[in-house]
Amino acid sequence: MTSMQLRAVTTTTTTTTIICTTPIPFSTPLLNSICLATKSKTATPSPSLRSFLPTPPLFSSTSIPTGYTMAPDALGDANRKFWDERAGALFQEDWVKVLSKQLRDCLVSSVEFMGIRKSSPGGPSTKLIDYACGNGVVSHALFDNFDVIRGVDISDGMVTAYNDLAASLGIPPTRMRAAQGNLLDPATPLDDPDLYDADAIIMSMALHHTGDPQKIMAKMAERVRSGGVVVAIDWVTSDTDGAHKHSAAHGHHTTSKHSFNSEEMSELFAGAGCDKESFGFRTYHETSHIPEHITNTKGGVDRTFFIAKANKL
């Protein structure tokens, strides 16, 4: 990573203009404080962890500190610093906890839809890459389906939280661990062999914060074996998209696109080298409420997220 370069821009008492001159890389889901008071740090996990694993929130943002703009190639460093410092307090909010549970339920109920085969004794090893992993919502939701799970996140703080949570549950690093990195940053090549030839790679709630969704999808597909599945979870396009904005209290969110529809996702998967015939797209059955102080919309906004998948050719 290059060192962070920031320069002040003109502000008013309520707004700040942010100018970004570079493609915006993916950002990280955020970590809620995790209470493990009832779990021993030396505990051995049961055969199925899903019954007791915490459900930390999974939400992502490319907020940068108010009053600053990014010089070329610096956004990744700003994201990394920003969320290392501020993730915990913001995402203790109730609406994020609800969203996290919805995402977890979506993943668990979509195993067949994604075409993920469950690992079996004596069978071939299965591997998941949890991209923009945060502290591991995706990884823990699908723990029983993979022999090897590798997380990747832009934030050192999220990587630490991911690895600490796994260790507290007695999960060895050979089974599950995370590394800091960014597939859109050549300075973090992520050349560990464990980060290739995956059966599945999943990115949840981060695609709408990328400056180049097509490029990140292609980079993700490069990490999957032929026939493996690429999965994205994000917001579905609605009539209210673009009508709300995030609160300045949480910094300015440099989103390039608020949401996606089925046709857009199909094109992104095809452009990433996935089989068009294997493409699938479905929406979650509940809406997710984002409150007024986040959206700056009176009464808040109800959003629906989707899960989309396709197999690499």
TrEMBL record:
Membrane spanning residue stretches: none
InterPro entries registered for this protein in UniProt: SAM-dependent_MTases_sf (IPR029063)
Name recorded for this polypeptide: Methyltransferase domain-containing protein
Pfam families reported in the protein's UniProt record: Methyltransf_23 (PF13489)
Lineage: Eukaryota, Fungi, Dikarya, Ascomycota, Pezizomycotina
